[in-house]
Write a structure and sequence with these properties.
Blueprint (H helix, E strand, L loop, with lengths): L3 E4 L2 E4 L4 E7 L7 E8 L6 E6 L6 E3 L7 E6 L4 E6 L8 E9 L15 E2 L3 E6 L1
Parallel strand pairs: 2-11
Antiparallel strand pairs: 1-3, 3-8, 4-5, 4-9, 5-6, 7-8, 9-10, 9-11
Length: 127
Amino acid sequence: QVQLVESGGGLVQAGGSLRLSCAASGRTFGRYIVGWFRQVPGKEREFVAAISRGAGTTSYADYVKGRFTVSRDNDKNTGFLQMSSLKPEDTAVYYCAAKWQTFGSTLPSADTQYDYWGQGTQVTVSS
């Protein structure tokens, strides 16, 4: 099992940047895909980005591509989401999630495919 704790959210003006962190417990963090999702009240949780266990493969939703960068440091059991050129529509609670990665598997974008979740961190982008 793995426990996840997000941090780094806050209030930022449009055009600004934030870096979210996802700290994981356990010794097997490096065997998990890390995904990032976001949710606003009244809407379904949506995929943002994902990174493979070795960081060799990444995936992004079209609406963040070119602005957000997902990364990880397996030695520190931490995943990151660097967010730049933020827009008011990026305002949401951001969650990190983890899924055990088997050989040859792809990076899932469906939240139902992830097994472990953090508590979320609020990101608010003012116009």
